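Work Package 4 report. The design task specified in the project plan requires that, given a folded chain encoded as structure tokens, an amino acid be chosen for each position. We show below one input record used in the internal validation round.
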């Protein structure tokens, strides 16, 4: 009941207001010698940098919509808000199931197909994903909670993810593989648009690190891939 009430509140808030925008860093005055000073513009904190290419989820049940909005906005140059994705998927999805479990990959697939994309789930290795240079949405299990993130890059030792709860971050590869079930959800058309959008050097640098397909699943399998996690900042805090 509390979850349903929260979902109704979230929908109403999304319908009436825009998604909370990330705060812009302001200029900083740097003191010099003899009382002089100079101004440095566009100073970005590490926390802000983590959300420069990852959309932060606004509700505990919205990591799926935030992950999908991040994938489209930052990897396919198709700017969309978490708000827009959230409302569409809830309106056209199994609302009773969404209230219980959150969004599924099938909800995401339906949204993408309605907007001219072809997308499917595949079981692949991280090495295969790296060779394909395909950003993907994956479901990871963090401390007992299922959570959607975007895989933005892969190296021999690390995985770069866009986490709607914590921002862009690095997960050691060995740790990531323990959290992940091997399923990736990727867009199969418009691949040309992802050029230079996987393993981007600037994204690794923002989080203090240097950068360096299998059998498609049926829709019924995608429908069973859902999330359930704590609110923004709740995982790993």
């Amino acid at each position: 009941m509390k979850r349903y009430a929260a979902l109704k509140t979230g929908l109403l808030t999304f319908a009436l207001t825009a998604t909370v925008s990330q705060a812009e860093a302001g200029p900083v005055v740097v003191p010099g010698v003899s009382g002089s000073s100079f101004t440095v513009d566009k100073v970005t904190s590490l926390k802000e940098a983590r959300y420069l290419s990852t959309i932060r989820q606004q509700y505990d049940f919205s990591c799926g919509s935030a992950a999908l909005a991040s994938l489209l906005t930052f990897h396919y140059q198709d700017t969309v808000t978490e708000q827009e994705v959230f409302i569409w998927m809830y309106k056209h999805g199994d609302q009773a199931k969404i209230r219980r479990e959150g969004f599924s990959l099938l909800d995401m697939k339906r949204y993408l197909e309605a907007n001219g994309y072809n997308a499917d789930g595949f079981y692949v290795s991280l090495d295969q994903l790296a060779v394909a240079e395909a950003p993907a949405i994956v479901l990871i299990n963090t401390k007992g909670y299922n959570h959607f993130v975007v895989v933005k890059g892969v190296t021999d030792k690390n995985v770069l993810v866009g986490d709607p709860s914590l921002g862009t971050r690095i997960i050691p590869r060995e740790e990531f593989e323990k959290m992940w079930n091997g399923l990736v959800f990727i867009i199969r058309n418009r691949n040309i648009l992802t050029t230079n959008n996987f393993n981007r050097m600037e994204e690794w640098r923002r989080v203090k690190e240097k950068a360096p397909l299998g059998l498609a699943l049926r829709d019924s399998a995608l429908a069973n891939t859902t999330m359930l996690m704590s609110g923004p900042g709740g995982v790993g805090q």
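Confidence is low (pLDDT under 50) at residues 15-25, 227-237. Validation will be extended to a larger panel in the next phase.
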